[in-house]
Design brief:
The chain is an alpha/beta fold. The chain contains 10 helices and 14 strands. Helices cover 31% and strands 30% of the residues. The protein binds S-adenosylmethionine.
Amino acid sequence: MKWEKYTLITKTDVVDIISASLGDIGVEGIEIEDNVPLSPEETKGMFIDFLPELPEDEGIAKVSFYLDSEADNTKLMEDIKATLEELKEFCDIGDGVLIKSETEDKNWINNWKQYFKPFFVGDILIKPTWEEIPEDVKYKTLIQIDPGTAFGTGAHETTKLCILALEKYLRTKPEAKVLDVGTGSGILGIAALKLGAECVFGTDLDEMALDAVMENMISNEIGMTEFVAVCGNIIGDKDVMDLAGYEKFDIVTANILAPVIIELIKTVAVHMRKGGIFITSGIIDTKEADVVLAFKKSEDFEILEINHLGEWVSIVAKKRE
Ligand SMILES: C[S@@+](CC[C@H](N)C(=O)[O-])C[C@H]1O[C@@H](n2cnc3c(N)ncnc32)[C@H](O)[C@@H]1O
């Protein structure tokens, strides 16, 4: 799909009012570019794989938005121009001139790809589908991944923690049946299969994740019966719960945020075999105590280990025999 990109060059201190005013008249997907570094508070709880080095902040910002080039945008453009004129009366937004350019999906959705290079997690070489295997690199297991718009290049600390736990526990449970809640790109399910799991059932709330899983299954030559992924919430959605099955899984992975993990602690045990392993991550260190408490309150689980990478935490627990 082609998009018309409109960019307003303005000042950092007025981007909030500009984007709020444009949002009020129906402009979606507003993008702000500036050189203001993210504060530690802002990055907490966000899944950011790579933080680029920024030049010095000179107070200049670009506010951009995209309109479908095939839609009739006449009325919306009139409203946008009127809104900018109105704003000029109250604050210094610059000259208010919108610079137009044309772009395609891939230009702005795929820009991050230049930062994604092959790397190891344990014995597994993870590489983007579009990169060559580096010369002279020796590896036991290869995962090729393109997350598309889903989460899961493998480079995030939380994903690494889960893969390392999968390596460890699949050694004691070869041919395990694995449930991957919040599968994203499917990277944990694919890692599990490459490490010897028999089959994976993945769930995600994001429909786009299923496309990514399918593409990554093909790139990694994984059969349709080995990895089944569904869109839906295994926490409380009976259809998804039934599809997953009960008393069945040897290993569950869930790399989601702490509040979701806490809900899973209350609900996921019904899907697991006794002695099954629950690998969790996505827990920022400030929430570690909350998740530990939820495990301690649970009659179903005992904690086996807690691991840290950067400010992220992984807790591995076992379903009581
Ligand atoms: C941090 S990503 C993890 C992706 C991948 N598993 C990894 O480890 O890199 C979390 C994923 O969980 C999904 N998610 C959030 N809440 C969920 C829920 N209740 N059930 C299923 N998926 C959920 C999000 O859409 C997102 O794709």
